[in-house]
């Protein structure tokens, strides 16, 4: 099916010791990658990622081991006195999914789908967090920079790419997300290295594919897009929508190798490929801009890809992208 995750991405979250938290803080200060830090204390990179996301300071983003462990001890001692959702399984489910990056709406929608009944609403999750588990509140909203008003980009010439087809000529069947096989492509850059991520998002199923490229060149981008999409049947790779970055200059070669049709957004209209923009926003939860992507290996990238493809989406009726993709392929096959 063109998707093959070989690593053990899902593992139960276990508490860290004070010494391990000190080692994490030391590793972060030294600029080590999550995988290097995890290896040093014999933990998984996903456990370290969850620890940092959960316990870093909300304002400064700083991770301080002594304060973190003190906060954990206070949470533990106070837990028995707090009012909670009645079922212990529901409480654990909410905490685990919040740490994994799910929203209250996704948590409630998915829990209800799995049980076949209305277990709790997303409003109940919000109330539980604010009344009983304020430590989970930092997961509620992904921080975003203030956006410029649309159309307010500096007036300069967009890079010239030959033989582009405008997004305005894209068929309605693509625009409406009525059929599968239509992708959006973009790159996610790092402040600390020339390495980038090539990111692809399928418009109907919200499937995300991502791989590292050493530098943002047209040849590297072309090679990665082809490698990512080639394993899919032709029916699942029909079109690709790009922006006007020069890394997309070899779109005609991509089309030739994949049998796709390429479309290009209007200059400085990145919102016209909203699926991949949203995917990159989710990836930033795991790999913020200060991350040195040179230090991130393929296994860690696959773990993040796996996580994104297993978060339920409201637009998919709380199926995950993987589930929607598999069901869609089976239905059409």
Secondary structure topology:
Layout: H1 18-29, H2 34-40, H3 45-55, H4 65-79, H5 88-99, H6 104-115, H7 122-132, H8 172-175, E1 182-189, E2 196-202, E3 208-213, H9 218-229, E4 239-242, H10 251-258, E5 261-264, H11 274-286, H12 298-308, H13 321-332
Parallel strand pairs: 1-4, 4-5
Antiparallel strand pairs: 1-2, 2-3
Compact overview of the structure:
By secondary structure, the protein is an alpha/beta fold.
Termini separation comes to 12 Å
Number of domains: 3
Question: What would you say the CATH architecture of the largest domain is?
Answer: 2-Layer Sandwich
CATH superfamily of the largest domain: Ribonuclease H-like superfamily/Ribonuclease H
By DSSP (H or I, 4+ residues per run), the number of helices equals 13
- The helix content, as a percent range, equals 40-55%
How are the strands of the largest sheet arranged?
3-2-1-4-5
Could you explain how this protein is built, in words?
Strand 1 and strand 2 (196-202) form a beta hairpin. The termini are close together. Helices cover 42% and strands 9% of the residues. The protein has 13 helices and five strands. A five-stranded mixed β-sheet has the order 3-2-1-4-5. With 333 residues, the protein is α/β, with parallel strands linked by helices.
